[in-house]
Amino acid sequence: MLLDGIKVVSFCHFLQGPAAVQYLADMGADAVKVEPIGGAHERHWSGANVFVEGVSGFFLCANRNNRSIAIDLKSPEGNEVARRLIAQADIVVENFRPGVFDKLGFTQAVLDDLNPSLIFASASGFGSSGPMAQKPGQDILVQARSGLMSVTGNPENAPTPVGFAVVDQHGAALLAMGILGALVRRLKTGKGTRVEGSLINAGIDLQGEALLNYFAGGFDRSVLKREVNLATWFHQAPYGVYPARDGHVVISLCETETLAQALESDDIRAVASLDSYTDRDEYARRINAATAKFSMAEIAERLDSHGIWWAPVKYYDELRSDPQLIHAQVFGKVDVRGRVIDIINHPNRYDGQVPGLRVLALELGEHTREILAELGYSESDVENMERSSAVLAAAERV
Fold first, then answer.
1. For residues 250 and 230, is the Cβ–Cβ distance under 8 A?
2. Are 56 and 45 in contact (CB under 8 A)?
3. Most CB atoms closer than 10 Å: which of 202, 279, 332, 334?
4. Contact (CB, 8 A) for 119 and 108
5. Residues classed as catalytic
6. What angle do CA 242, 156, 285 make, to 5 degrees?
């Protein structure tokens, strides 16, 4: 794989940090997840209370291809284990609140001394400095502060959050991108890099097109008002979601006359001379009335035959049977303590191949002994550290 021979040490929990490391691990990096003795947060909580044979769905979504070692970083022995890991790493990633990693003894000066060419990446909610640095960073909080929630909804119908942790996931991808850029630099020059990612920057980055248009256009928030069918405040009609008799469809930008022909609508044809942006609400109301008369199958045939870009609105329970997703091997299977579940595979393909699942640390400290042996600790050293609770190693499952 692309990152064979690259070692990543992850001091990460929640989603942004673990998901970033998972991208690297999927590409072949040897990723070691350092967890506290009680386990990372995502082992103990899951959305919708989903636990698969006792394993959190939250943990399963973002810790693929990571080995697990459990360490008490506040104990001298555990802290020394972490230092040995860092000394041998190519990349260290942490997403504690700013200043916490320093308090644990891992300041930039210490890291430079342990490993001068280290790539050290930090993920946070609002960055390592500034008036918001110590505020809690969470996806929905950043959706609110970045303006994302306000433009997904509109002033009349209330701000509307995206229905999943979109900022966390984008922040993870941006952090992984930055780490890979730093890795290229190190391979060329031998120089390490400090990489910083934050949720607030990720939330802003997601909205680059919309924000540029808003500022350059000199608008105020009244421009956000629009018919509920319209997807954004800055696209012309029909760009949005419309009803059918048995579902909903998305219709993209197209010529008014062409859409009127496809839907056999004189009402749409009658507004062909109007501006499809400034009069987008009137367009949307007329399109809504026209599409509501047809079934999904009828709309599909009509729009396809006129070359209009459209898509059916699908629900999660329809995705696993989608022919394109099946072809693209978007979903995979994994055995979790005897129960087989669906997982989401790595999003990219390399030489036509989907990166495989090499390891899944279902147990806290599943690889503690293995990793300590690689660091040069003897069996007696490991036993002593286990007895003092400096480390935790999972018992072998039968």
1. no
2. yes
3. 202
4. no
5. 168
6. 30
> Could you tell me the strand order of the sheet in which 91-94 lies?
193-198, 119-124, 91-94, 7-11, 30-35, 66-71, 391-392
Amino acid at 89: A
Judge contact between 232 and 210, C-beta under 8 A: yes
Mean of per-residue pLDDT scores for the chain: 97
Exposed / middle / buried, residue 220 (Cβ in 10 Å: 0-12, 13-18, 19+): exposed
Which phi and psi (to 5°) does residue 51 adopt?
Answer: -130, 125
- 331-336 and 339-344 beta bridge pairing: antiparallel
pLDDT tens digits, one per residue of 23-68: 999 999 999 999 999 999 999 999 999 999 999 999 999 999 999 9
d(CA 111, CA 323): 49
Helix/strand/coil for 357:
coil
pLDDT in tens, 124-146: 999 999 999 999 999 999 999 99
Element (H, E) at 302: helix 296-305
- Between 296-305 and 256-263, two packed helices, what is the crossing angle to 10 degrees? 130
* Residue 41: both structure tokens together: 């947060």
Q: What is the torsion angle, in degrees rounded to the nearest 10, for the CA atoms of residue 314, residue 320, residue 325 and residue 327?
A: -150
Q: What is the pLDDT of residues 274-326, one digit of tens each?
A: 999 999 999 999 999 999 999 999 999 999 999 999 999 999 999 999 999 99
398 pLDDT more than 80: no
3-state secondary structure (DSSP) of residue 119: strand
pLDDT digits (tens, 9 = 90+) for 344-364: 999 999 999 999 999 999 999
**Residue 100, token pair as written in the block:** 């916490």
| Residue 114 CA from chain centroid, whole number | 31
Q: Is the pTM of this model over 0.70?
A: yes
Distance in angstroms (rounded) separating the CA atoms of residues 139 and 200: 9
SS3 state of residue 10:
strand
Cα 173 from chain centroid? Answer: 6
Beta bridge partners of 242: 249
CA distance 159 to 156: 9
Q: What does the alpha-carbon distance between residue 19 and residue 190 come to, in Å, rounded to a whole number?
A: 26
Burial class (CB in 10 A: 0-12, 13-18, 19+), 310: buried
Check: CB of residue 260 under 8 Å from CB of residue 323: no
